Amino acid sequence: MLDYNFWTISLSLLSSWLLYHLITRILSWRDLPPGPWGLPVIGYLPWLDPEHPYESFTKLARKFGSIYSVQLGRLPTIVITDPKMIKQAFNMDALTGRADLYLTHGIFKGYGLICSEGPRWREQRKFASTCRKNQGMAKSHPKREKLEALILNGVKDTMMRITDTETSATSGVEFSPFLTHSIGNVMNVIIFGREFAYDDPTWKLLTHLSEEGVKLIGVAGPLNFLPFLRVIPKFRASMDFIVGGLERTHEIYREITREHSGDEEDVVGCFLREQRSRQGREGDSKVAQHSFCDDQLNFLAADLFGAGLDTPLATLRWFFTMMAVYPEVQEKIHTELTTVLANHSPCLDDAQRLPYLEAAISESQRLRTVVPTGIPHGVNTDCALGDYQLKKGTMVVPLLWAVHLDPKIWPEPEEYRPERFLDEMGNYRRMEAWMPFQTGKRVCLGEELARMIIFLYASTILQKFKIEFPDDEVPEGKDPLEGVCGITLLPKYGRLIFKSRVS
């Protein structure tokens, strides 16, 4: 009898809970954009392709329009594919928050730059922006040449490793580790003031933790929306790796921080100076709860390192892959490099003189958006967007994949055409609907650095090498531009041939 009453009460409570959420959902439809039905508790999650969620979202956009609503587990979600509406939305203060995802709020606890919001985000973004400008990440700054030299050393390191690999000109080489090492060390100098050797055990551990973490943390991952799944063995293993990897990474960061005096010009040194300054003004008790605490430093360093490495790395991998797939474009770029630069090596000032190269890079960023679903925002206060009312706590997804492949904006969008980014005079033009670094108040802070890295690597390597696919790299009938998605979208086929153009 007791068991019977227990299950009766439990089922009654569950039914009431489901009915409440169903009624709430129905009542909110008056204010929300149209969208698909979902199941109680889990919403539309079962219908999302776990490997290509951006394609599932894009199909819904074709059915419901450029703005639609979808329930993802416990989170009401708005998906936008209209570039003008994305810009409008992400310039609103009400949409500068972060969605209440389990990984960002439950694990990262709102620390860092990517996952923070409110006063902490505003303060940390201002601090990080000042640091970057003072390190030369501005178009006119005394330290820009020093930063350029640092990046060019990384380019030189990558080319040396390609040349030293015996099979690079015959059967090809998986060059991604070379890019990871050299670009990663650019970020290490900027953030920590130090470099790592290629075979350093600590460096190998850090890159392993970063690469695997990027694969496991996907915006559409069920764990973000259904935290209770973490008890299931399949998901528990991923969670254990993410949490354990995060703690191990922070341990290494703490060791590096202890070596700092606080006088250094890297990010850690600047942070420590600001932290000490605030201690003097506010007292130790307040600092413990302030934005400039030790935990914030670790998460900020991880965010700056990850964003500074992942975006240029993914972009360059796609760009060089497209050079192998489209040899006629590669030859046009090499002709431009030879004509404009003659025998001297590229520098940042050459970017404006190489419009076709700039257009080819931009077109590769359009065709294979490295963050297809964008970085979701969260509504931090009730607001209106167009004809719709958005409630606090709603997640807003800028579906950049759909924006960049919209046939109304880009005729024959699956075609690779650098000419899209050239005007009638052959000059480079930036298209309004092109937003690989997102847009608005939380636009990517590292855009200028990423553009510097991408240009210098792309121009220098294409000046020196001809890039091809090995005959056995892409299986017959497969798309050489097929991607693998974690946080970022990466090429599935990564082995390339680098033939020296220098006699």
Q: Which overall shape is indicated by the principal axes computed on the Cα atoms? A: globular
Secondary-structure element order, as H and E?
HHEEHHHHEHHHHHHHHHEEEEHHEEEE
Low-confidence stretches: none
DSSP helix fraction: 40-55%
Q: Report the major sheet.
A: 4 strands, mixed
CATH fold-level name: Cytochrome p450
* Helix/strand/pairing category: alpha+beta
Q: Name the beta content range.
A: 5-15%
How many domain modules?
1
Q: Terminal Cα separation, in Å?
A: 90 Å
* Spatial ordering of strands, largest sheet: 1-2-7-4
- Give the strand tally: 11
Cα gyration radius (Å): 24 Å
The CATH homologous superfamily is called: Cytochrome P450
Number of helices: 17
Average pLDDT level: 89
The CATH architecture classification is Orthogonal Bundle
Care to give the gist of this entry?
The chain is an alpha+beta fold.
Outline the structure in words:
GO terms for molecular function: heme binding; iron ion binding; oxidoreductase activity, acting on paired donors, with incorporation or reduction of molecular oxygen, reduced flavin or flavoprotein as one donor, and incorporation of one atom of oxygen; steroid hydroxylase activity. With 503 residues, the protein is α+β, with helices and mostly antiparallel strands. The chain has one domain: Orthogonal Bundle (Cytochrome p450). The protein is built from 17 helices and eleven strands. The chain has helices at 2-28, 53-64, 83-90, 102-107, 118-134, 144-164, 176-192, 201-216, 222-225, 233-258, 267-282, 284-287, 294-325, 327-341, 355-367, 400-404, 447-464; strands at 67-72, 75-80, 173-174, 377-378, 383-385, 388-390, 395-398, 465-468, 483-485, 489-491, 495-500. Helix 10 crosses helix 13. The mean pLDDT is 89.
